[in-house]
Design goal:
The complex is a heterodimer. By secondary structure, chain A is of the alpha/beta class. Chain A has helices at residues 2-20, 48-61, 74-83, 96-104, 114-117, 155-164, 166-169, 182-194, 197-207, 216-225, 244-247, 274-285, 291-297, 304-308, 328-342; strands at 27-31, 40-44, 67-71, 90-93, 108-109, 124-125, 129-142, 173-176, 211-213, 230-235, 249-252, 258-268, 313-315. In chain A, helix 6 (155-164) packs parallel to helix 9. The chains are: A alpha/beta, B alpha+beta.
Chain lengths: 344, 460
């Protein structure tokens, strides 16, 4: 009996190692705990540098748990979990739409604890998708470039500013390439839903030869170096205001509305150690108890009051609405319109 | 239909009302359940239909091909009622345009514009689906577009379990309130009956006044009948008492005449055998007269024990008085009544006529059943709780020591068949004792032949 079980286990692992290499990993780090204990395998879209303080703080409370942290893009995360069914214990992603689809299509398992019960209604979905940070989409500008210009407060003002100074901004604007960036696509689709001005802004930006980026980090550093005058729809957490002055950048929220991305975690249905995943979700749900982690990472924990007291701050709502822009026809349509607007 | 009532009316009432209430509560619970579940299902169906319709409205033709701009609201509206999983599929004839390719399409496809609903199992869960159809003509050919939108029913389950909880709560609350009210109603309805029962039980055994308690209409035939029964009983009792008294009186009067006549003859008779015969005759007349007297006494005692006229009596005095009165009768047999007077006064609250009667009967018995030239000792003793009036004779004693049997009406001891007696004497004594919450004890004389009869009366 034991022999048979071991055999099955070996075959299983063999199959696993074959399929595990199919999706593309960007990075992987192991944080050892007790080698005999059950590990926690995390698949995440967040860079190790950003997320490491959370892992170390978690291990301070649970030193016995070894953590294997794998970084992949949101598309690769989807491929790993949805197509290849690699058994990770926890999936952390900024792509709320893809996380929603994983839960909707039955790839996640439910988890309830006193900590998750304390989350606001908009901070979780189906007790399967749990938000733990709120990260606004902001405009990041170079202080140097804007020293003679009025800093725009809304998208309309931004459009006017661009139309008035086409030569100044030409080739020096950055934004996400929504075709390759899941987060960029999420922000763009939400913008299109929230404001009519989105398409006009995209067209204006397209005429000014806007540079397209895969990631917020690169955009922020290009603004900092002066290569760009500003970057639109950057993840606020990457343009950490703590270091804004030293980088020569300024974080500008456009106050007609501010889309807020919620970074979410879910436990895949085929998780090997869902118990450890639950512990991590409990820890992440209580990030507001660790203000030093917020200072360290720039990731702000879920804050009910900050969101519900401001009408211009719009957290992207978890739920079936997010599936709409994942619809193949809708996505094709959107990308076609976007490409024709941005590349003129 | 309903079995004859045994046991408590109240319990029956409460049980029946309780059963009716339980039935009504259950009916209420079930109807709330059904209506609420229907409402919840309808809500989901309506939103599903609205979602499918909005998808249908977003269809358009581009370059001869049918395209869909899936509206945000089509799926987000489904997220507003619950956190259920949502599936959709758009088919052109048999090919999927977009959505979940494995979501089952109605077979055959619906052609009507009216949305058709179904409940299926999809991805391991119960899913409510709606299907709507649209016709498109692109150039020469007409194309049928089928739109299917589905949603799992967990939210519905949560809603319906919440409704069930509420309905259960209301049902139980309704039941409790109704039970309390029916208890109260039963209590109220039965109050006149209880009042009547109480007023009848509270009266003494000989209280034969009519019942005057106010009663509801349903009970008045019973009360009327009861009162008429009481009246008949009363008149029967009175008649029989009157009859006894009348009979005794009618016997005693001629006996007295007979005795006087016999006395006269006795004086005139010279021959000893004739005198002896006459003497026996006179004695027999005396006994008969006494029996008649006892019958009268008994009727009187029975009548009076029901309505005692109590007063303070000095028992020693009473006892001495009775002894004196019977001294002549004792002397006829050359007997002596030895009364040892007590030192202290013994006051007792009682009916003096009855007590006198009782004491006389005890003493007469003692004289009657004792041999000539014997003594009767009479004394009054007191202890903590009782006054004891003790009569000790030197007669034949009681062969039967079962007092209860001796004090029965017309019951006599087995060793007295040679002496004439009515069998009423001890009955009278016992009844009088009982009327004064006392009792009679009969024992054998410890200092020789004879009996010891004690009338025990409570001192407080």
């Amino acid at each position: 009996m034991r022999y048979t079980r071991t055999t099955i286990f070996l075959i299983f692992f063999a199959l696993l190692s074959v399929s595990a290499h199919a999706f593309e990993r960007e990075d992987q780090t192991n944080y050892p705990g007790n080698p005999l204990g059950k590990p926690l395998n995390i698949l995440s879209t967040a860079d190790i540098a950003i997320f490491e303080p959370f892992i170390l703080a978690f291990q301070k409370n649970h030193p016995e748990i070894s953590i294997e942290y794998t970084v992949a893009s949101s598309t690769e995360v989807m491929r790993a979990v949805f197509d290849e069914r690699v058994p990770f214990d926890l999936v952390i992603s900024s792509a709320m739409d893809l996380q929603t689809k994983l839960s909707n299509d039955g790839f996640a398992q439910s988890y309830v604890s006193t900590q998750t019960e304390a989350l606001p209604d908009w901070g979780k979905w189906r007790n399967q998708v749990f938000a733990f940070t709120q990260e606004p989409a902001v405009m990041v500008l170079s202080v140097d470039a804007f020293k003679d210009l009025l800093v725009p407060g809304t998208r309309e003002e931004l459009i006017t500013l661009l139309r008035d100074n086409p030569d100044f901004f030409k080739g020096k604007i950055g934004t996400y390439d929504v075709r390759s960036s899941g987060l960029g696509y999420l922000f763009a689709t939400q913008d299109s839903r929230n404001a009519e001005s989105f398409w006009r802004l995209t067209e204006v930006m397209g005429r000014l030869d806007t540079q397209l980026y895969c990631c917020s980090g690169q955009m922020v550093s290009d603004v900092s170096s002066g290569k760009l005058t500003f970057a639109y729809n950057v993840l606020g957490s990457y343009a950490n205001s703590q270091h804004a002055d030293t980088l020569g950048i300024q974080v500008v929220p456009l106050n007609d509305f501010i889309s807020v991305m919620l970074r979410t975690a879910l436990i895949p249905a085929n998780a090997t150690n869902p118990g450890n995943s639950g512990l991590m979700i409990d820890f992440l749900s209580q990030l507001s108890n660790y203000p030093d982690l917020t200072l360290q990472t720039g990731l702000h924990p879920i804050d009910k009051n900050a969101i519900e007291s401001q009408t211009t701050v719009r957290p992207i709502r978890l739920g079936p609405g997010l599936l709409v822009f994942l619809d193949a026809m809708r996505r094709d349509n959107f990308l076609r319109s976007w490409v024709s607007s941005i590349s003129q | 239909m309903i079995p004859p009532l045994k046991g408590s009316i109240r319990r029956q009432l409460v049980l029946q009302l309780g059963a009716i209430t339980a039935l009504l509560s259950l009916a209420f619970f079930l109807s709330v359940q059904v209506v609420a579940e229907k409402a919840a299902t309808d809500t989901q169906d309506n939103i599903l239909a609205a979602s499918a319709t909005s998808i249908a409205d977003a269809l358009y033709i581009e370059n001869g091909a049918i395209k869909l701009e899936l509206p945000y609201s089509a799926l987000s509206m489904l997220g507003t009622i619950s956190e259920d999983r949502v599936f959709y599929r758009v088919l052109q004839d048999d090919t999927t345009l977009t959505g979940y390719v494995d979501l089952p399409a109605p077979n055959p496809p619906t052609i009507s514009r009216v949305p058709s609903f179904d409940t299926i199992i999809y991805k391991g869960e119960e899913v409510r689906t709606v299907a709507v159809t649209r016709n498109f003509s692109t150039g020469k050919t007409a194309k049928i577009i089928n739109i299917i939108v589905g949603q799992t029913r967990l939210g519905l389950a949560v809603t319906s379990s919440a409704i069930t909880a509420t309905a259960t709560g209301i049902g139980i609350g309704f039941f409790i309130v109704a039970i309390a009210l029916s208890l109260w109603a039963a209590q109220n309805t039965l109050r006149p009956i209880n009042r009547l029962a109480l007023s009848v039980t509270r009266r003494g055994p000989t209280d034969l006044r009519p019942v005057t308690t106010e009663t509801p209409a349903e009970l008045s035939p019973l009360v009327t009948e009861l009162n008429s029964f009481i009246l008949r009983l009363k008149s029967t009792l009175t008649r029989s008492e009157d009859f006894i008294a009348e009979a005794a009186h009618h016997i005693r009067t001629p006996l007295a005449t007979l005795r006087t006549q016999a006395e006269v003859f006795y004086q005139q008779m010279e021959k000893p055998e004739n005198r002896k015969t006459l003497r026996n005759m006179i004695r027999a007349v005396d006994e008969s007269s006494r029996s008649a007297g006892q019958l009268l006494d008994y009727a009187m005692v029975t009548f009076k024990t029901d309505q005692l006229t109590t007063q303070n009596i000095e028992l020693g005095h009473l006892l001495e008085d009775v002894c004196k009165r019977l001294s002549p009768a004792a002397e006829l047999k050359d007997m002596q009544i030895l009364y040892s007077q007590s030192r202290a006064e013994v006051m007792f609250k009682g009916d003096s006529i009855l007590l006198q009667n009782a004491l006389r009967n005890i003493l007469e018995n003692a004289i009657k059943y004792s041999p000539d030239e014997s003594d009767i000792k009479v004394s009054l003793e007191t202890d903590e709780n009782n006054y004891r009036l003790v009569f000790i004779d030197q007669g034949r004693g009681f062969a039967e020591t079962d007092t209860a049997k001796l004090t029965k009406r017309f019951s006599r001891g087995p060793n007295v068949s040679d002496v004439i007696g009515s069998g009423l004497g001890l009955t009278i004594v016992s009844d009088v004792a009982k009327a004064h919450h006392g009792h009679l004890t009969i024992t054998s004389n410890t200092e020789g032949p004879g009996a010891c009869v004690t009338l025990v009366l409570p001192s407080s």
